[in-house]
Design a protein that fits this description.
By secondary structure, the protein is an alpha+beta fold. Helix content is 16%, strand content 40%. The protein folds into two domains: 126 residues, Diaminopimelate Epimerase, Chain A, domain 1 (Roll), CATH 3.10.310.10; 121 residues, Diaminopimelate Epimerase, Chain A, domain 1 (Roll). Strand 12 and strand 13 form a beta hairpin.
């Protein structure tokens, strides 16, 4: 099986273009392919382009634990770059159908910047979803108990669920300690992505990320979008926001209705061929 490997600010994916023989990967196959010691190593697999009645291209996003993701901002930029590299698109805008909705993408002339219209962020508990007592509402600055600790959090979705924890200073250690507990918290029936958010100024934030199904992650487009939207909801940031992550920076424009435009790079790494012996 042939795969194309890319990374978006250190968040790496394998692109697999299916043929007529392909049905689908099993959960064990996904885990094996993504394993960094026993497989090709990645934060997930992008299966596409697939046929779609809603968009120009369909895309399936697979997490390294074998689950399926609704949406991935970095994954979408990588997929757009792959379509550009394989001459399936040029510099005109095109649409991609994901489990989390249809998005539009555009690749710059030199393919160094890919722009994705990520959609509209919602904070509504019944949309995300979040298990709460009482009526459905926006989950804004509420308390969540993690072990013996009580944290303040915002919940959001941009096609996939997010739990954003504002902090005075982000750290990898805290993301790795609390991330898995929040990902699997009873408040989130579909599990959740987790971001720790530090406001730097009106146009810049810093985040550390624990990604659902993948663990600690150097960068994430959907996490950037959710955290940026929370920063706007807090009244701490304006519409143009730069997001700092361990892997690099993403640029966001978030309007008053919380529609998110994301721009950032995607880098080609290698063309790889998997020997199925490693999956036995």
């Amino acid at each position: 099986m042939k795969f194309q490997k890319y990374h978006a600010l250190g968040n790496d994916y394998l692109v697999f273009e299916p043929d007529e023989k392909y049905s689908q990967f099993t959960q064990n196959e996904i885990v094996g392919i993504c394993h960094r010691n026993f497989g090709l190593g990645s934060d997930g697999i992008l299966v596409g382009p697939l046929p779609s009645k809603k968009a120009d291209f369909g895309l399936q996003i697979l997490n390294p634990d074998g689950s399926e993701a609704e949406k991935s901002g970095n994954g979408l930029r990588i997929f757009a770059r792959y379509l550009w590299d394989s001459q399936k698109v040029g510099t005109k805008e095109f649409t991609v159908d994901t489990l989390g909705g249809v998005v539009s993408c555009k690749v710059s002339d030199s393919a160094d910047v890919i722009t994705v219209e990520m959609g509209q962020v919602s904070f509504r508990s019944n949309v995300i979803p979040v298990n709460l007592t009482g009526e459905a509402r926006e989950v804004i600055d509420e308390e969540i108990k993690v072990g013996s600790e009580v944290l303040k959090y915002y919940a959001a979705t941009i096609g996939n669920p997010h739990c954003v924890i504002p902090v005075s200073q982000v750290s990898k250690e805290e993301a790795m300690r609390l991330g898995p507990l929040l990902e699997n918290h009873e408040n989130f029936p579909n599990r959740t992505n987790v971001q720790f958010l530090e406001i730097l100024d009106r146009n810049r934030i810093k985040i550390e990320i624990w990604e659902r199904g993948a663990g600690y992650t150097l960068a994430s487009g959907s996490s950037s979008s959710a955290a940026g939207a929370v920063a706007r909801k807090m009244g701490a940031c304006d519409q143009d926001i730069t997001v700092e992550m361990p892997g690099g920076e993403i640029k966001l424009v978030i309007d008053d209705e919380f529609n998110v435009n994301m721009a950032g790079p995607a880098t080609r790494v290698a063309s790889m061929e998997l020997d199925t012996e490693c999956l036995k």
